[in-house]
Design a protein that fits this description.
The protein is an all-alpha fold. It folds into 2 domains: 1-89, no CATH class; 143-330, Growth Hormone, Chain: A (Up-down Bundle). It has 14 helices and 2 strands. The chain has a two-stranded antiparallel sheet. Helix 3 (47-67) runs antiparallel to helix 4 (71-77). The longest helix is centred in the last third of the chain and has 30 residues, at 244-273. It is globular and about 55 Å long. It is a multi-pass membrane protein.
Length: 344
Protein backbone atom coordinates (compact mmCIF):
# COMPACT_ATOMS: atom_id res chain seq x y z
CA UNK A 1 0.00 0.00 0.00
CA UNK A 2 2.86 2.36 0.77
CA UNK A 3 5.32 1.87 -2.09
CA UNK A 4 3.04 2.99 -5.00
CA UNK A 5 2.40 6.32 -3.25
CA UNK A 6 6.01 7.12 -2.34
CA UNK A 7 6.67 9.05 -5.57
CA UNK A 8 3.60 11.23 -5.03
CA UNK A 9 4.48 11.78 -1.37
CA UNK A 10 8.06 12.85 -2.00
CA UNK A 11 6.88 15.12 -4.85
CA UNK A 12 4.43 16.81 -2.49
CA UNK A 13 7.37 17.57 -0.18
CA UNK A 14 9.02 19.57 -2.97
CA UNK A 15 11.70 17.09 -3.97
CA UNK A 16 12.89 16.91 -7.57
CA UNK A 17 12.88 13.53 -9.36
CA UNK A 18 16.67 13.30 -8.99
CA UNK A 19 16.53 13.90 -5.21
CA UNK A 20 13.73 11.35 -4.93
CA UNK A 21 15.90 8.88 -6.84
CA UNK A 22 18.84 9.43 -4.50
CA UNK A 23 16.61 8.80 -1.48
CA UNK A 24 15.32 5.61 -3.09
CA UNK A 25 18.86 4.44 -3.84
CA UNK A 26 20.00 4.89 -0.23
CA UNK A 27 17.15 2.64 0.84
CA UNK A 28 18.34 0.04 -1.66
CA UNK A 29 21.89 0.25 -0.32
CA UNK A 30 20.69 -0.40 3.24
CA UNK A 31 18.48 -3.24 2.03
CA UNK A 32 21.43 -4.89 0.27
CA UNK A 33 23.31 -5.42 3.54
CA UNK A 34 20.52 -5.52 6.10
CA UNK A 35 19.75 -9.23 5.74
CA UNK A 36 23.34 -10.19 6.61
CA UNK A 37 23.52 -7.72 9.48
CA UNK A 38 20.20 -8.73 11.00
CA UNK A 39 21.02 -12.41 10.48
CA UNK A 40 24.29 -12.08 12.44
CA UNK A 41 22.60 -10.06 15.16
CA UNK A 42 19.81 -12.62 15.49
CA UNK A 43 22.45 -15.28 16.19
CA UNK A 44 23.49 -13.20 19.18
CA UNK A 45 20.15 -12.24 20.72
CA UNK A 46 17.88 -14.94 19.29
CA UNK A 47 15.45 -15.04 16.39
CA UNK A 48 12.39 -14.01 18.40
CA UNK A 49 14.01 -10.87 19.82
CA UNK A 50 15.43 -9.89 16.43
CA UNK A 51 12.07 -10.37 14.72
CA UNK A 52 10.21 -8.30 17.33
CA UNK A 53 12.81 -5.53 17.11
CA UNK A 54 12.63 -5.38 13.32
CA UNK A 55 8.83 -5.32 13.31
CA UNK A 56 8.69 -2.55 15.91
CA UNK A 57 11.35 -0.48 14.14
CA UNK A 58 9.53 -0.93 10.82
CA UNK A 59 6.32 0.28 12.47
CA UNK A 60 8.23 3.33 13.71
CA UNK A 61 9.50 3.92 10.17
CA UNK A 62 5.99 3.88 8.70
CA UNK A 63 4.82 6.27 11.43
CA UNK A 64 7.64 8.69 10.59
CA UNK A 65 6.88 8.31 6.89
CA UNK A 66 3.25 9.29 7.39
CA UNK A 67 4.22 12.26 9.59
CA UNK A 68 7.13 13.47 7.45
CA UNK A 69 6.92 17.11 6.40
CA UNK A 70 10.33 17.37 4.72
CA UNK A 71 12.54 15.35 2.41
CA UNK A 72 14.98 14.77 5.29
CA UNK A 73 12.31 13.14 7.47
CA UNK A 74 11.15 11.15 4.46
CA UNK A 75 14.67 9.75 4.03
CA UNK A 76 15.06 9.04 7.76
CA UNK A 77 11.74 7.17 7.80
CA UNK A 78 13.09 4.66 5.25
CA UNK A 79 16.02 3.65 7.46
CA UNK A 80 14.65 2.34 10.81
CA UNK A 81 15.37 -1.37 10.14
CA UNK A 82 18.90 -0.44 10.67
CA UNK A 83 17.99 0.48 14.23
CA UNK A 84 19.26 -2.92 15.33
CA UNK A 85 22.74 -1.33 15.21
CA UNK A 86 21.85 0.67 18.30
CA UNK A 87 22.07 -2.49 20.34
CA UNK A 88 25.53 -3.28 21.77
CA UNK A 89 27.56 -5.91 19.98
CA UNK A 90 29.53 -8.45 21.95
CA UNK A 91 31.25 -11.70 21.21
CA UNK A 92 28.94 -14.43 22.39
CA UNK A 93 30.10 -18.00 22.86
CA UNK A 94 27.83 -20.77 21.77
CA UNK A 95 28.03 -24.35 23.07
CA UNK A 96 27.77 -26.84 20.27
CA UNK A 97 28.39 -30.49 19.63
CA UNK A 98 31.27 -31.72 17.50
CA UNK A 99 29.00 -32.04 14.49
CA UNK A 100 27.59 -28.52 14.79
CA UNK A 101 28.20 -25.78 12.28
CA UNK A 102 30.94 -23.28 13.10
CA UNK A 103 29.44 -19.81 12.97
CA UNK A 104 30.98 -17.54 10.38
CA UNK A 105 32.79 -20.35 8.55
CA UNK A 106 32.41 -19.97 4.80
CA UNK A 107 33.44 -22.44 2.16
CA UNK A 108 35.27 -21.07 -0.87
CA UNK A 109 33.81 -21.45 -4.32
CA UNK A 110 35.49 -23.85 -6.68
CA UNK A 111 36.29 -23.02 -10.29
CA UNK A 112 33.14 -24.83 -11.47
CA UNK A 113 30.96 -22.71 -9.16
CA UNK A 114 30.35 -25.67 -6.88
CA UNK A 115 29.45 -24.65 -3.38
CA UNK A 116 29.44 -27.12 -0.51
CA UNK A 117 26.82 -26.33 2.08
CA UNK A 118 26.96 -27.80 5.57
CA UNK A 119 23.83 -28.05 7.68
CA UNK A 120 23.85 -28.45 11.42
CA UNK A 121 21.60 -27.87 14.40
CA UNK A 122 22.72 -26.26 17.61
CA UNK A 123 22.19 -28.49 20.62
CA UNK A 124 21.09 -26.77 23.79
CA UNK A 125 23.09 -27.47 26.86
CA UNK A 126 25.96 -29.16 25.09
CA UNK A 127 29.34 -28.34 26.60
CA UNK A 128 31.88 -30.13 24.46
CA UNK A 129 33.15 -27.13 22.49
CA UNK A 130 32.65 -23.39 22.11
CA UNK A 131 32.39 -21.24 18.99
CA UNK A 132 32.68 -17.51 18.70
CA UNK A 133 30.34 -15.49 16.49
CA UNK A 134 32.11 -13.16 14.11
CA UNK A 135 31.32 -9.49 13.91
CA UNK A 136 28.79 -8.49 11.21
CA UNK A 137 31.16 -6.55 8.95
CA UNK A 138 33.38 -9.64 8.72
CA UNK A 139 30.35 -11.65 7.64
CA UNK A 140 29.55 -9.01 5.02
CA UNK A 141 33.09 -9.11 3.60
CA UNK A 142 32.95 -12.90 3.38
CA UNK A 143 29.58 -12.74 1.64
CA UNK A 144 30.88 -10.15 -0.82
CA UNK A 145 33.94 -12.30 -1.61
CA UNK A 146 31.72 -15.30 -2.34
CA UNK A 147 29.43 -13.08 -4.41
CA UNK A 148 32.38 -11.78 -6.43
CA UNK A 149 33.58 -15.33 -7.13
CA UNK A 150 30.18 -16.31 -8.47
CA UNK A 151 29.51 -13.16 -10.47
CA UNK A 152 32.88 -13.34 -12.24
CA UNK A 153 32.56 -17.05 -12.94
CA UNK A 154 31.25 -18.64 -16.14
CA UNK A 155 27.77 -17.50 -15.07
CA UNK A 156 28.51 -13.78 -15.41
CA UNK A 157 26.13 -13.42 -18.35
CA UNK A 158 23.21 -14.90 -16.41
CA UNK A 159 23.71 -12.53 -13.49
CA UNK A 160 24.12 -9.58 -15.86
CA UNK A 161 20.87 -10.47 -17.63
CA UNK A 162 19.17 -10.75 -14.25
CA UNK A 163 20.43 -7.30 -13.26
CA UNK A 164 19.43 -5.67 -16.55
CA UNK A 165 15.94 -7.15 -16.57
CA UNK A 166 15.42 -6.36 -12.88
CA UNK A 167 16.37 -2.71 -13.42
CA UNK A 168 14.19 -2.55 -16.55
CA UNK A 169 11.09 -3.73 -14.68
CA UNK A 170 11.87 -1.56 -11.65
CA UNK A 171 12.12 1.49 -13.91
CA UNK A 172 8.64 0.68 -15.21
CA UNK A 173 7.20 0.53 -11.70
CA UNK A 174 9.29 3.38 -10.25
CA UNK A 175 7.09 6.23 -11.42
CA UNK A 176 3.97 4.31 -12.49
CA UNK A 177 1.52 6.24 -10.29
CA UNK A 178 3.13 9.62 -10.92
CA UNK A 179 3.46 9.07 -14.68
CA UNK A 180 -0.21 8.12 -15.11
CA UNK A 181 -1.24 11.21 -13.20
CA UNK A 182 0.99 13.51 -15.27
CA UNK A 183 0.30 11.89 -18.65
CA UNK A 184 -3.42 11.08 -18.39
CA UNK A 185 -4.67 12.76 -15.22
CA UNK A 186 -5.43 9.39 -13.59
CA UNK A 187 -6.00 9.63 -9.85
CA UNK A 188 -4.14 7.30 -7.43
CA UNK A 189 -7.40 5.44 -6.66
CA UNK A 190 -7.82 4.28 -10.26
CA UNK A 191 -4.11 3.54 -10.53
CA UNK A 192 -4.46 1.36 -7.43
CA UNK A 193 -7.15 -0.66 -9.17
CA UNK A 194 -4.85 -1.13 -12.16
CA UNK A 195 -1.96 -2.24 -9.94
CA UNK A 196 -4.20 -4.78 -8.14
CA UNK A 197 -5.47 -6.06 -11.47
CA UNK A 198 -1.92 -6.49 -12.79
CA UNK A 199 -0.76 -8.20 -9.59
CA UNK A 200 -3.65 -10.67 -9.76
CA UNK A 201 -2.71 -11.52 -13.33
CA UNK A 202 0.91 -11.99 -12.27
CA UNK A 203 -0.19 -14.49 -9.63
CA UNK A 204 -2.34 -16.38 -12.15
CA UNK A 205 0.58 -16.47 -14.58
CA UNK A 206 2.30 -18.95 -12.27
CA UNK A 207 -0.27 -21.58 -13.21
CA UNK A 208 0.74 -21.28 -16.86
CA UNK A 209 4.43 -22.02 -16.21
CA UNK A 210 3.99 -25.80 -16.26
CA UNK A 211 2.39 -25.95 -19.72
CA UNK A 212 4.89 -23.39 -21.03
CA UNK A 213 7.84 -25.42 -19.76
CA UNK A 214 6.48 -28.54 -21.43
CA UNK A 215 5.84 -26.64 -24.66
CA UNK A 216 9.46 -25.44 -24.73
CA UNK A 217 10.76 -28.86 -23.60
CA UNK A 218 12.13 -27.32 -20.36
CA UNK A 219 14.42 -24.96 -22.26
CA UNK A 220 14.58 -22.14 -19.69
CA UNK A 221 16.99 -20.09 -21.80
CA UNK A 222 14.60 -19.91 -24.76
CA UNK A 223 11.63 -19.12 -22.52
CA UNK A 224 13.61 -16.34 -20.85
CA UNK A 225 14.67 -14.96 -24.22
CA UNK A 226 11.12 -14.88 -25.55
CA UNK A 227 9.65 -13.43 -22.33
CA UNK A 228 12.34 -10.73 -22.37
CA UNK A 229 11.47 -9.91 -25.99
CA UNK A 230 7.85 -9.55 -24.95
CA UNK A 231 8.83 -7.38 -21.98
CA UNK A 232 10.95 -5.13 -24.22
CA UNK A 233 8.09 -4.70 -26.70
CA UNK A 234 5.56 -3.92 -23.98
CA UNK A 235 7.83 -1.42 -22.21
CA UNK A 236 8.33 0.38 -25.53
CA UNK A 237 4.58 0.31 -26.17
CA UNK A 238 3.83 1.63 -22.67
CA UNK A 239 6.33 4.48 -22.96
CA UNK A 240 4.82 5.67 -26.27
CA UNK A 241 1.14 5.10 -25.38
CA UNK A 242 -1.34 7.93 -25.96
CA UNK A 243 -4.46 6.31 -24.50
CA UNK A 244 -5.31 4.48 -21.28
CA UNK A 245 -6.47 1.50 -23.32
CA UNK A 246 -2.90 0.91 -24.51
CA UNK A 247 -1.65 1.33 -20.91
CA UNK A 248 -4.06 -1.33 -19.64
CA UNK A 249 -3.14 -3.67 -22.49
CA UNK A 250 0.60 -3.33 -21.93
CA UNK A 251 0.24 -3.67 -18.14
CA UNK A 252 -1.81 -6.84 -18.60
CA UNK A 253 0.81 -8.59 -20.72
CA UNK A 254 3.72 -7.21 -18.66
CA UNK A 255 2.32 -8.94 -15.59
CA UNK A 256 2.57 -12.21 -17.47
CA UNK A 257 5.97 -11.70 -19.10
CA UNK A 258 7.72 -10.48 -15.94
CA UNK A 259 6.31 -13.34 -13.83
CA UNK A 260 7.58 -15.91 -16.35
CA UNK A 261 10.94 -14.14 -16.64
CA UNK A 262 11.56 -14.10 -12.87
CA UNK A 263 10.96 -17.82 -12.61
CA UNK A 264 13.06 -18.70 -15.66
CA UNK A 265 16.12 -16.69 -14.63
CA UNK A 266 16.19 -18.44 -11.25
CA UNK A 267 15.72 -21.84 -12.88
CA UNK A 268 18.50 -21.05 -15.35
CA UNK A 269 20.88 -20.14 -12.51
CA UNK A 270 20.24 -23.47 -10.79
CA UNK A 271 20.47 -25.43 -14.03
CA UNK A 272 23.87 -23.99 -14.95
CA UNK A 273 25.29 -23.78 -11.42
CA UNK A 274 24.29 -27.28 -10.34
CA UNK A 275 22.39 -28.56 -7.33
CA UNK A 276 25.32 -28.22 -4.91
CA UNK A 277 25.43 -24.45 -5.40
CA UNK A 278 21.69 -23.85 -5.10
CA UNK A 279 21.81 -21.95 -1.80
CA UNK A 280 24.68 -19.71 -2.84
CA UNK A 281 23.22 -19.10 -6.29
CA UNK A 282 19.83 -18.06 -4.95
CA UNK A 283 21.51 -15.79 -2.41
CA UNK A 284 23.73 -14.13 -5.02
CA UNK A 285 20.75 -13.77 -7.36
CA UNK A 286 18.84 -11.94 -4.65
CA UNK A 287 21.85 -9.72 -4.02
CA UNK A 288 22.04 -8.88 -7.73
CA UNK A 289 18.37 -7.89 -7.61
CA UNK A 290 19.12 -5.78 -4.54
CA UNK A 291 21.80 -3.96 -6.54
CA UNK A 292 19.07 -3.24 -9.08
CA UNK A 293 17.03 -1.63 -6.31
CA UNK A 294 19.95 0.72 -5.73
CA UNK A 295 20.48 1.63 -9.38
CA UNK A 296 16.87 1.84 -10.58
CA UNK A 297 15.60 4.74 -8.39
CA UNK A 298 18.61 6.89 -9.24
CA UNK A 299 18.31 6.25 -12.99
CA UNK A 300 14.57 6.81 -12.81
CA UNK A 301 15.01 10.17 -11.09
CA UNK A 302 17.55 11.41 -13.62
CA UNK A 303 15.62 10.45 -16.77
CA UNK A 304 12.34 11.59 -15.25
CA UNK A 305 13.76 15.10 -15.23
CA UNK A 306 13.46 14.93 -19.03
CA UNK A 307 10.10 13.20 -19.40
CA UNK A 308 7.67 11.02 -17.40
CA UNK A 309 8.12 8.49 -20.21
CA UNK A 310 11.87 8.39 -19.55
CA UNK A 311 12.03 5.50 -17.03
CA UNK A 312 10.07 2.92 -19.11
CA UNK A 313 11.96 4.00 -22.25
CA UNK A 314 15.29 3.41 -20.50
CA UNK A 315 13.91 0.11 -19.19
CA UNK A 316 13.15 -0.96 -22.76
CA UNK A 317 16.72 -0.11 -23.77
CA UNK A 318 18.17 -2.20 -20.92
CA UNK A 319 15.88 -5.11 -21.81
CA UNK A 320 17.18 -4.91 -25.39
CA UNK A 321 20.78 -5.17 -24.11
CA UNK A 322 19.81 -8.24 -22.07
CA UNK A 323 18.23 -9.81 -25.16
CA UNK A 324 21.41 -9.14 -27.13
CA UNK A 325 23.53 -10.87 -24.45
CA UNK A 326 21.22 -13.89 -24.33
CA UNK A 327 21.29 -14.17 -28.12
CA UNK A 328 25.09 -14.25 -28.18
CA UNK A 329 25.65 -16.74 -25.38
CA UNK A 330 23.56 -19.74 -24.50
CA UNK A 331 24.64 -21.28 -21.18
CA UNK A 332 25.40 -24.94 -20.70
CA UNK A 333 23.71 -26.90 -17.96
CA UNK A 334 25.75 -28.31 -15.10
CA UNK A 335 25.30 -31.76 -13.63
CA UNK A 336 21.98 -33.58 -13.89
CA UNK A 337 19.88 -30.57 -12.89
CA UNK A 338 18.13 -30.23 -16.27
CA UNK A 339 17.25 -33.93 -16.37
CA UNK A 340 15.84 -33.68 -12.86
CA UNK A 341 13.68 -30.70 -13.87
CA UNK A 342 12.35 -32.62 -16.88
CA UNK A 343 11.41 -35.59 -14.72
CA UNK A 344 9.58 -33.29 -12.30
Amino acid sequence: MVVPLLSLHVKSLGASPTVAGIVGSTYGILQLFSSTFVGCWSDVVGKRSALLTCILSSALGYLLLGASTSVFLFAVARVPVELVWLFPWSEVKFSTTKNDLQLGKNNRLSGNTGYKVQDAATARGATTSEKTARLPWIEVLSALQDMKSLIFSKMWDIFLVRLLMAVAVMLYYSNFVLALEERFGVRPKMTGYLISYSSALGALAGFALGPIMRLYKHDSHTILLHSSLLTFTLLLLYSTAHTMGVIVFSSTLLSFSTAVGRTCITDLQLTVGGAQASGALIGVGQSVTAVGRIVAPLLSGVVQEVSPCGPPSLGAALALVAIFIMSLKKPRSSGNRSDKLKSE
